[in-house]
Amino acid sequence: MTSAMQSALAAPVVKPAIIVRLDFATGAVRVHSGVGNLSFNSETYTGLGALGAVADIVETIDGSSNTCDLQMVASSALIALALGEIGGARGRQGRVWFGSYDLSTGLLISDPIMRYSGVIGTISHDDNGETGKLVIGLVDETGDQERPRTRYYNMADQQRVDPTDTSMKGVVDLPNKQLNWGNSKVFTGNPRGDGGGGGDSTSDQL
């Protein structure tokens, strides 16, 4: 922790900053708990103000997964966008930093602390038709290992992971393919080719 952060947290009044980065398949979503745009790590973060919140980060010592729920009030359009990301978003990185804004200038004090790093595990919503609450659940490595993997191993499923990958385009036709096992040209008759009698063909050639 930098000395500037130590001084800010020791002050009688603290203006906390929560910074969130979610690596969706269609691009990173970057938001912070203040208002306006914020420059952090050479990237721009959009302020959500009172519209966003981070639930308590659950930490354990028994080997079970640690979790972090991100909550934000969002329009129906944003909720639809997030829900459309579910298939490609699960398992992608999500990070949360804790910092502080300077009370005089409103600028971010360097350097925020990495508070949580995990992957996107769940996306849920409560939508009333105009606005609603979007909840994105992050889990750590243990929680991600316990997450069921639902894959269809077809073109559409693979392109949710990588839109440029066309390696699965022939999978749908596999059930209709005729597969020949072995070599159909292998000769299984009399190796001498003279129509001769039986006996061990190997010893006849010695």
Task: Report on the architecture of this protein.
By secondary structure, this protein is an alpha+beta fold. Helix content is 18%, strand content 33%. It contains 6 helices and 9 strands; from the N terminus they run αββββββααβββααα. It has helices at 3-10, 76-84, 86-89, 141-146, 155-161, 201-204; strands spanning 16-24, 27-32, 37-40, 43-47, 52-54, 67-75, 93-100, 113-127, 131-139. The protein has a 9-stranded mixed beta sheet. Strand 1 and strand 2 form a beta hairpin. The longest helix is centred in the middle third of the chain and has 9 residues, at 76-84. The radius of gyration is 30 Å and the shape is elongated. 17% of the residues are buried. Residues 198-206 have low confidence and may be disordered.
SSE order and pairing:
Layout: H1 3-10, E1 16-24, E2 27-32, E3 37-40, E4 43-47, E5 52-54, E6 67-75, H2 76-84, H3 86-89, E7 93-100, E8 113-127, E9 131-139, H4 141-146, H5 155-161, H6 201-204
Parallel strand pairs: 2-4
Antiparallel strand pairs: 1-2, 1-7, 3-4, 5-6, 6-9, 7-8, 8-9
Briefly summarize what is shown.
By secondary structure, the protein is α+β, with helices and mostly antiparallel strands.
Structural class: alpha+beta
What about the largest sheet? 9 strands, mixed
Tell me the β content: 25-35%
Across the major sheet, the strand order is 3-4-2-1-7-8-9-6-5
Radius of gyration, CA atoms, in whole angstroms:
30 Å
Keywords summarizing the entry:
206 residues, alpha+beta, elongated, disordered C terminus
